TrEMBL record:
This is Acylaminoacyl-peptidase. InterPro entries: AB_hydrolase_fold, Peptidase_S9_cat. Pfam families: Peptidase_S9. It comes from the Bacteria. Residues 1-20 form the signal peptide. Residues 601-806 form the Peptidase S9 prolyl oligopeptidase catalytic domain. Keywords: Hydrolase, Signal.
Length: 817
């Protein structure tokens, strides 16, 4: 017999009395019966929830077939069902799209036991299931355990209000979602063997059933991707290879173990070494590692500060380097000092260890001193190679020691600036010291990218990770030719890399592009060629609608080119006006071109916003003179660039509504948002996350305040330059604010204390301004944990929807409870 269910879609609420409309059954799919070899239903067992949750991911897949206990079942259109099915579980699924935040209720009739999931989240209810959905594409799965008569089955949708319409679709592509961007598999850590034949990689993803707990898998593979060994509970960032690539040392369950690659035998060499970390092979028979100890605090009622560093919770932990003999398991101390001694590098052939120490010294900006010391193991002597105000990294090379530090290193050796400008020492430069630490040479004065770190190859060349404008790239420094060469990684943003030291000079790299998700590539240095080993696009983004990207640069009033980029929503109708979001940082780093991150531009575009990311004056990666303008400015040039850039953006994109512009930034970008609110009424709504409102209080109270200010406010203090600390602080101009402002902060933020948002909130409240303050309980400077991240993303978009789309319902849904 031909079976047709009486399923209807009610597009009205009782209060509005809108006409009902039939549901297009061709857009609902049915599968079942499943597991007909048993009449025992999941609700007859104590494991109902687990059984249903375990089945759900298979039903969510776009596949049209599902194999159950050797039988293949096919999804079919509900209207094409030709038989009445009773035994076993069945499932229904349909997709729908929304153009705004909607709220409504699904009502099921004729189903005794149903589990209803929206985008993998279980909806609460028995016959009625209230839900909400944001702009985008969504999937509903209904798993039924008991249906007595399918002819009596009906599914109704009741919108909360007339605008809460949903449209069922058979789309083959879907808009990006927050869950997709956060949960998708990524390679979180990698480690390549010295001979380039093997690598260890940690894959991480999230799933709804695990909530905030990541699912991780760390594997040893050969270069062809064949899995050779698995490391439960270990990250690839914690493993280290023996020089001959035959063994790996790692820490697991408080045990230090060595894996023999030849026969995969495992040997424990240390146990219960509390505070020990960073195990590496010094040679084939010896491990070098750091061991820290935190002395007991004798004061139970007070904390007696010893210095500015005492604001850091770990400041009193003392770390020293040690050796561990693999065969005997004897541990031997390498250094003894009253302050921490950190391993910078070591050379078993020279029989030396390079270490750094940071004695307390506030004499000059950035109010920190670094000592570079070489320990000669043959005679147990130490040699002070130098003391530096700016210092980042040191590594041995064939001709001496590479050092990465700011332009002011060694009395300004790396400066490439007019004499009247102060250098920004976050703009990393490369230097070469001879083996005695004297006669330093500046190698990168005319190299515009800012150097962040390096790995040294056997021939003395160095692979450098750099900030190159708004990208993160790898460059090869040829030691013999003193030349920099950009490596072809295939990425806009290199996230992590690991280098082999053999003649093949292979580099394992993870990264992404602005419009392409993360991948794992193998780069051959000599041929400068790239091979993709793994790509998350095929795993999690195959049918995703991704915003189109356009470069947008302009020349500011000082004659400097300011870079930027624009994300255009998928299938944007340029005949209509659209809201836009303007994002910036404004601090010492440009906003990188990562596919996703804490501020997901592609997600914002998927929500219907044109997104303009601007790189204002002061960032590294554009040359020393560009970054030096950050010093003692505190938004002076940056605000002008953002305002001018936004106006240029409006001219170039006439379909952007000038009356519906939102702006946002975090940390220094949060400071910029507050400052802009005192300078312009260009924006219709603004968000400042973890922003600085009072430069003085941040300088004195933030964990890194005095260090960062050592560059950002170099040689300027409240007593010798009070106008900088007051007149550039937004709270001193709070009476000029006219734009609605949302302040977001973690209440456990140590970098920028939450009082910075409270300063501005108090001022604006007393002034009767439109201001909101949201604090995330227990959160530090960043919102990281999965459920908080989703809530935080929702909060920002809901706020902009309220002010830029005249749609307050999402905000009211979140904050009316």
């Amino acid at each position: 017999m031909i079976f047709r269910t009486a399923v209807t879609l009610l597009l009205s609420a009782a209060a509005t009395q809108l006409a009902a409309a039939p549901l297009d059954e061709s857009k609902i799919q049915f599968i079942g019966p499943l597991g007909t070899q048993s009449t025992i239903k999941p609700h007859h067992t104590p494991h109902q929830k687990s059984i249903i949750n375990n089945l759900l991911p298979q039903l969510q897949k776009p596949s049209q077939k599902l194999e159950v206990f050797g039988h293949t079942h096919s999804w079919q259109n509900l209207q094409e069902m030709s038989a009445l099915t009773v035994n076993g579980m069945q499932a229904l699924r349909f997709n729908f799209s929304t153009t705004r935040f909607v709220a409504g209720t699904l009502t099921l009739s004729g189903i005794e036991k149903a589990h209803v999931f929206l985008n993998g989240e279980l909806l609460t209810g028995k016959n009625e299931f209230p839900f909400h959905a944001v702009t985008g594409d969504h999937q509903v799965i209904i798993i039924t355990e008991q249906v007595d008569d399918w002819k009596k089955v009906a599914i109704d949708y009741t919108p909360k209000a007339a605008h809460d319409e949903i449209v069922l679709t058979h789309k083959t592509t879907t808009a990006l979602s927050a869950k997709q961007l956060y949960d998708a598999p990524t390679i979180s850590a990698i480690s390549l063997s010295p001979n380039g034949k093997f690598y260890v990689a940690t894959e991480r993803h999230y799933q709804t059933s695990r909530e905030n707990a990541a699912v991780t898998n760390t594997s040893l593979k050969n270069i062809d991707g064949e899995v050779l060994y698995r490391f439960p509970g270990v990250s690839a960032s914690q493993v280290s290879w023996s020089p001959d690539s035959n063994a790996i040392v790692f820490t697991q369950d408080k045990r230090v173990s060595i894996l023999d690659i030849k026969d995969f035998s495992l040997k424990t060499v240390a146990e219960q070494f509390k505070g020990a970390s960073g195990y590496q092979f010094f040679d084939e028979d010896t491990l070098i590692f750091s061991w820290s100890n935190t002395p007991d605090d004798k004061h139970t009622l007070v904390k007696h500060y010893s210095g500015l560093e005492d604001r850091w919770s770990y400041a009193r932990s003392i770390s020293q380097p040690f050796f561990l003999d693999i065969k005997s398991r004897l541990v031997s101390s390498i250094s003894e000092s009253k302050i921490s001694t950190r391993i910078a590098d070591f050379d078993s052939e020279r029989n030396t260890v390079l270490v750094t120490r940071n004695p307390v010294d506030y004499a000059a900006p950035p109010h920190m001193l670094t000592q570079l010391v070489e320990i000669d193991l043959s005679n147990h002597t130490e040699k002070m190679l130098g003391q530096y105000r700016t210092f980042n990294q040191a590594k041995y090379t064939n001709k001496g020691i590479y050092v990465i530090a700011g332009p002011d290193f060694s009395q300004g050796l790396g400066r490439n600036l007019p004499k009247d400008m102060l250098a920004n020492n976050y703009d990393g430069q490369l230097y070469l010291l001879n083996n005695d630490g004297v006669k330093p040479q500046a190698l990168s004065k005319k190299f515009a990218p800012a150097i962040g770190g390096l790995r040294v190859l056997n021939n003395g060349d160095a692979v450098l990770n750099v900030t190159d404008k708004d990208t993160k790239q790898l460059y090869l420094y040829d030691e013999s030719k003193r030349r920099f060469k950009k490596l072809n990684t295939g990425f806009d943003v290199v996230q992590s890399y690991s280098v082999s030291k053999t003649n093949k000079d292979q580099i394992l790299v993870t990264g992404s592009q602005a419009s392409s998700p993360q991948a794992l590539n193998l780069v051959t240095v000599k041929r400068n060629k790239t091979k993709t080993l793994w790509d998350s696009k095929s795993v999690a983004y195959n049918n995703s609608e991704i915003a189109s990207l356009e470069e947008f640069n302009f020349t500011n009033e000082s004659g400097t080119q300011i870079s930027g980029r624009v994300y255009l929503p998928h299938n944007l109708d340029t005949s209509k006006k659209h809201p836009a979001l303007i994002y910036y940082y404004g601090g010492t780093s440009p906003v990188s071109r990562g596919f996703t991150g804490r501020y997901p531009f592609n997600l914002w575009a998927a929500q219907g916003y044109v997104v303009y990311v601007v790189q204002p004056t002061g960032a590294t990666g554009f040359g020393q003179e560009f970054s030096a303008k950050h010093v003692n400015a505190w938004g002076e040039h940056t605000a002008d660039d953002i305002i001018q850039g936004t106006n240029e953006f409006l001219k170039a994109y006439p379909f952007v509504d000038k009356n519906r512009l939102g702006n946002l930034g975090a940390s220094y970008g949060g400071f910029m948002t507050m400052l802009l609110a005192t300078k312009t009424d260009l924006f219709s709504a603004s968000i400042a996350h973890a922003g600085i409102s009072n430069i003085t209080s941040y300088w004195g109270q933030g964990w890194w305040g005095y260090l960062y200010s050592g560059e950002a406010s170099k040689n300027s203090f409240p007593w010798n330059n009070p106008s900088l600390y007051s007149q550039q602080s937004p709270v001193f101009h709070a009476d000029k604010v006219t734009t609605p402002l949302l302040l977001i902060h973690g209440d456990a933020d140590t970098n920028v204390p939450p009082g910075e948002s409270h300063n501005m909130y108090t001022a604006l409240k007393l002034l009767g301004k439109d201001v909101e303050l949201i604090e995330y309980k227990g959160a530090d400077h960043q919102i990281i944990v999965r459920d908080r991240r989703f809530h935080w993303w929702d909060t920002m978009l809901a706020y902009f929807d309220m002010h830029l789309k005249d749609q307050p319902q999402w905000w009211q849904y979140i904050y009316s409870k």
